[in-house]
Amino acid sequence: MKQLSIIFLFLVSFQIDAQELFVVTEPASNVPAGSIGVRVGQSLMDNKHESGSMYNLTPEVTWGVNKNLMVRTSAFLSNQDNGLGLKGGGFYAKYRFFSVDDLQSHFRMAAFGRYSYNNSFFTQEAIDLANGNSGYEAGLVATQLIHKVALSSSVSYVRALNNPDYSFPDALGKNAINYTFSVGKLMYPKKYTSYKQTNINAMLEFTGQTITENGKSYMDVVPSIQFIINSQARIDLAYKKELYSSMDRAATDGVFLKLEYTFFNVTK
């Protein structure tokens, strides 16, 4: 009974230290130590420069090295060249350095870093390390959970590099600040009777960027819904809408679908 109560408390906090909270942003929490998460992200965006849509496919593998450190590898595929093809890959790491846990709340802070390799040609002023730019990113994220509501915010520095076959345009800014704010709430179930119950989480995320050389910026809003099945499988559905932008962007509005499954205690 004691173990079951502990499971319930973790579920109320949106995750059993295994299920990540948000769809397009990262919280300060990590995946469980010793776990392996396999995820496939897809997006279908309106192409503002050409007719048709821009499709991106991102398979990822996440490993919980220990309770404070997680790492992730990603591959980037898109239909940018009139056919789905591999454009590059990336590596992400996050280290949780501060944590205060209470009965139905916690506060956590983490530092994260990312490196991306991408061989796409440059189509926009915005720096996107997942869909177009080689480069690196470093930042901090803080997440506050209070009962069934979670708040998370991050700030990071981003530097774009040359892509292997394409030099970064001199007219564009290479340096940027990224910032995010996310809020989520557990909508269902209202009361737990089994850890196998499906969780339904509703979220609203804001993502923005400012190019430091010229001050150009944008802000997007991403409403989403998340289903967590049997505390192990996850389905995310989201829609991204541009709120404002002073820079040229190739793709602003569109839908996201992410599928994820976590294998626990793989490397313990």
Largest sheet: 12 strands, antiparallel, barrel
- Strands of the widest sheet, in order across it, are 1-2-3-4-5-6-7-8-9-10-11-12
Please state roughly what percent of the residues sit in beta strands, choosing from under 5%, 5-15%, 15-25%, 25-35%, 35-45% or over 45%: over 45%
Order of helices and strands: HEEEEEEEEEEEE
Low-confidence stretches: 1-20
Q: Structural class of the secondary elements?
A: mainly beta
**Mean of residue pLDDT?**
90
The number of distinct helices, counting runs of at least 4 residues, comes to: 1
Question: What is the number of strand segments?
Answer: 12
Rg estimate, integer Å: 19 Å
N- to C-terminal separation?
Answer: 25 Å
Helix content: under 10%
Principal-axis shape equals: globular
Signal peptide: 1-18
Keywords: Signal
Protein name: DUF481 domain-containing protein
Keywords:
268 residues; mainly beta; twelve-stranded antiparallel barrel; disordered N terminus
Task: Characterise this structure.
This protein is mainly beta and 268 residues long. The protein has one helix at residues 2-12; strands spanning 36-47, 53-64, 69-78, 85-101, 105-118, 134-146, 149-161, 175-188, 199-211, 217-229, 233-245, 251-263. A hairpin with a 5-residue loop joins β1 and β2. The protein is globular, with a radius of gyration of 19 Å. The model is unreliable at 1-20 (pLDDT under 50).
Draw up the topology in text:
Elements: H1 2-12, E1 36-47, E2 53-64, E3 69-78, E4 85-101, E5 105-118, E6 134-146, E7 149-161, E8 175-188, E9 199-211, E10 217-229, E11 233-245, E12 251-263
Antiparallel strand pairs: 1-2, 1-12, 2-3, 3-4, 4-5, 5-6, 6-7, 7-8, 8-9, 9-10, 10-11, 11-12
